């Protein structure tokens, strides 16, 4: 099948809609069930930048009858997973039928494996409190950069980078809009078992280049900060009017 490769929703869903005719498509936590199929795709998203972009992709996937694992970070400079807005988004993604997973960062884990696992379980429980479902899917953030000492010792979780998964299927990623092994569409019908990692930030209704997307993110963040400052300013002005004779 020939497609025009880009980072638009149109391309993303034309590929997966075609694939689901022959492939079983599911989440990380469904691996044990999926691996029994002759052809399967594990669908996964790392939410490194924007929860709003993640929700948009989750809604689009729901329309197409797809479920994926959304890996959420609790240590992220661009979003606070515990803020009111973020909690509502994470809940909504879960309510759409998607799997919520922990995108853990070894920078924030103890050098002791037992203590690191304790911290991971605690962080997973925080996500459980948010989405109201058991969180057993985990994936390391930036595994090519950060230490990999957790690999192979994670218990009671389904690790996206565990050997049982990486040996069972081919792993491909859209890292910074760069499919190092070619666009995911090139693997459909050629590879029977796949783990496809995408980052919602790079996908939109119409294809956009990296710099365009990052500029959009900057503008969105600035607008959010301005809106917060405006609401805070109104709050203290109203407070002073009520409590001051000046």
Would you mind describing this structure in some detail?
39% of the residues lie in helices and 15% in strands. Helix 3 (51-63) runs parallel beside helix 4. It folds into 2 domains: 9-208, TIM Barrel (Alpha-Beta Barrel), CATH 3.20.20; 209-246. The chain contains 7 helices and 8 strands, in the order H-E-H-E-H-E-H-E-H-E-E-H-E-E-H. It is of the alpha/beta class and 246 residues long. Strands 1, 2, 3, 4, 5, 6, 7 and 8 form an 8-stranded parallel sheet that branches.
Q: Name the poorly predicted regions.
A: none
At CATH level 3, the topology of the largest domain is: TIM Barrel
CATH class of the largest domain: Alpha Beta
User: Based on the structure given, which CATH architecture of the largest domain is correct?
Assistant: Alpha-Beta Barrel
Secondary-structure-based class equals alpha/beta
Number of domains: 2
Order of helices and strands: HEHEHEHEHEEHEEH
Strand content: 15-25%
Q: Please bin the fraction of helical residues.
A: 25-40%
Biggest sheet character: 8 strands, parallel
Quick overview of this protein structure:
With 246 residues, this protein is of the alpha/beta class. 39% of the residues lie in helices and 15% in strands. It is globular and about 75 Å long.
Give me the secondary-structure topology.
Elements (H helix, E strand, L loop, with lengths): L8 H11 L4 E3 L4 H4 L5 E8 L3 H13 L5 E4 L11 H12 L3 E6 L8 H19 L5 E4 L17 E2 L3 H4 L3 E4 L19 E6 L11 H34 L3
Parallel strand pairs: 1-2, 2-3, 2-8, 3-4, 4-5, 5-6, 7-8
